[in-house]
Amino acid sequence: MRWRRASFEEDTSEEPLVNLTPLIDVVFVVLISFMLIAPVLDIDVVNLATAGTEKKKDSAFENSPLSIVVKGDNTIWMGGKKLSLQELERILLAQKKQYPHRSPQVLHDRNASFGTYQSVKNVLEQCGFEQMDIVLKPNE
Question: Cβ of 116: how many Cβ atoms within 10 Å?
Fold first, then answer.
């Protein structure tokens, strides 16, 4: 009877060992791949213009071709005229034919909703523009 007891104790005292080497290797491979891929990723961060822009600055910006202003009340202005999204699309299609290599400039007021910005961006994409410039502070 002693023998059984001793053999039973030996079996329970040995715990199965977990080999962590493959896990550590995988973690290092994933870490290195993130370190290599992270600089390549193109993450867009858009800082919106301040709400307190002067009219003098806005008027110079609005008169340049392909410049769109989204005001704090979510109205869209181009060339000093208030436009709807349909009118903006019509004008941008004509401007795309006239200025095929120019990218439009968008001045988005901080108080305007992000949905208006997204709508303007969608219209620009539908008109065939591949890039747009976000103007944070228009030139004086």
Answer: 18
Cα(92)–Cα(90) distance, integer angstroms: 6
Q: Roughly what angle, to the nearest 10 degrees, separates helices 114-126 and 85-98?
A: 40
In whole angstroms, what is the distance from residue 9 CA to residue 7 CA? 5
Q: What is the pTM of this model?
A: 0.53
Return the CATH architecture of domain 55-134.
2-Layer Sandwich (3.30)
Q: Nearest 5°: phi and psi at 57?
A: -70, -45
CA angle 85, 139, 128 (to 5 degrees): 35
Q: What is the spatial distance between Cα 108 and Cα 136, in angstroms, rounded to a whole number?
A: 8
- Spell out the per-residue pLDDT of the chain, length 140, in tens: 455 555 555 555 677 788 889 999 999 999 999 999 988 877 666 555 555 544 444 444 444 568 889 988 989 998 888 989 899 889 888 888 887 788 888 888 888 888 888 999 988 888 888 888 888 766 54
Q: Identify which of 86, 79, 94 has the alpha carbon closest to the alpha carbon of residue 120.
A: 86
Domain ranges across the chain: 2-37, 55-134
